[in-house]
Amino acid sequence: MRAPLILGGGPAGAAAAIVLARGGVRATVLERTRETGDALCGGFLSWRTLDALARLGIDADALNPRRVATLRLFAGGRRREVALPRAAVGVSRRRLDTLLLAAATRAGAAVERGVAVRAVEEGVVRLADSATLAAEALLLATGKHDLRGLARPAPREPDPALGLRVRLGPAAAVDVLVGDAIELHLFDGGYAGLVMQEDGTANLCLAVRRSRLNGGGTDALLDRLGREHAALGERLAWRCGGADAVANVPYGWRATHGCDGLFRLGDQAAVIPSLAGEGMGIAIASGTSAARALLAGRGAATWQRGFGRAARRPLALAGAARALAERPALAAAALPMAPATLIRLIAGGTRIGHDA
């Protein structure tokens, strides 16, 4: 087998590289950044994802020694806490990506940094310096960023989603507020997720309908949300720096078919609404699963259809939860009546199977 090319060194690409290297195939990972940054991400790793990472040689304590044990929901002035099915972890993408790429290198994968891919045309990869590369298998792991020639369909929503991320702290007051919880703050037209990370800061990610900007900027939006929602405002008071943003996030999209020679991984395979906290789970599951399929000689098109089927239920359940989250008055009315077991079942049902 000619060495596969993995386009992107995030969780999906690094996980694929590790599994391939362990199987005796030395893939080449092309990563556009020279240094590992902190990608816009919710920073939540579920219990199933932690199990998958352990199989890749990444220990949970190396990611973050503290655990997330509780789901805390805020909606319409109401608050509800439910224990998670199992302990989870909050972690920055800088820490996760660094550990995964180091593990890929130790396993024998070739990782080339500072290599920007501009397009893929008829199976040929064109780089920023006009050089071209070809491989029998391409693993597309570019996350939210589309490549020319392989772009996902543009979102068709009349009011598309905008993803935002801000840091809170580090401060002891933030730690006390959030504690061992993953928080979800629901508001009209969006929601915010908050979790403590390994560096003592809290990672606050929001999915907001574009119309909520009301012609203003992201800082004005955050100030407005803080005034409208007391608990969220108490936390936003500790924000440091500006907001990172990504536009037109195609939540709910999944690849249901493919072509041989091309494996779509991570957000290129399925984009789950961020309130599920399963984006990185899908990335790692898709990377390991695609690598196993490649080692077994299964075609990429067959694998892509199978992974699309596996992602259907988590995406559908997360989409229904997103629709409810964006109507906080309805969610607030349902919170006191929803049994804890049902909330935990939804939390478990939005996880991807790592044997997909």
Whole-number total of structural domains: 1
Q: Radius of gyration, rounded?
A: 20 Å
Shape label: globular
Q: Strand order, biggest sheet?
A: 3-5-4-12-13-14-11-15
CATH superfamily: FAD/NAD(P)-binding domain
Name of the CATH class: Alpha Beta
Order of helices and strands: EHEEHHEEHEEEEEEHEEEHHEEHHHH
Low-confidence stretches: none
Task: Tell me the CATH topology.
Answer: FAD/NAD(P)-binding domain
Biggest sheet, open or closed, and with what strands and sense? 8 strands, mixed
Strand element count? 16
Quaternary form = single chain
Helical percent range? 25-40%
N-to-C terminal Cα separation, in Å? 23 Å
**CATH architecture heading:** 3-Layer(bba) Sandwich
Mean pLDDT across the residues is 93
Strand content: 25-35%
Q: Find the structural class using helix and strand composition.
A: alpha/beta
How many DSSP H or I helices? 11
Pfam families: FAD_binding_3
Domain FAD-binding: 5-122
Keywords: Monooxygenase, Oxidoreductase
Organism: Sphingomonas corticis
Summed up, what is this model?
This protein has 356 residues and is α/β, with parallel strands linked by helices. It contains eleven helices and 16 strands. It has one domain (5-155, 251-349): 3-Layer(bba) Sandwich (FAD/NAD(P)-binding domain), CATH 3.50.50.60.
Structure notes:
It comes from Sphingomonas corticis. GO terms for molecular function: monooxygenase activity. Keywords: Monooxygenase, Oxidoreductase. InterPro entries: FAD-bd (IPR002938), FAD/NAD-bd_sf (IPR036188), Geranylgeranyl_reductase (IPR050407). This protein is 35% helix and 26% strand. With 356 residues, it is α/β, with parallel strands linked by helices. The strands form 3 sheets. It has an 8-stranded mixed sheet with strand order 3-5-4-12-13-14-11-15, sandwiched between helices. The protein has a 5-stranded parallel sheet with strand order 6-2-1-10-16. The longest helix has 26 residues. The two termini are 23 Å apart. The relative contact order is 0.18. The mean pLDDT is 93.
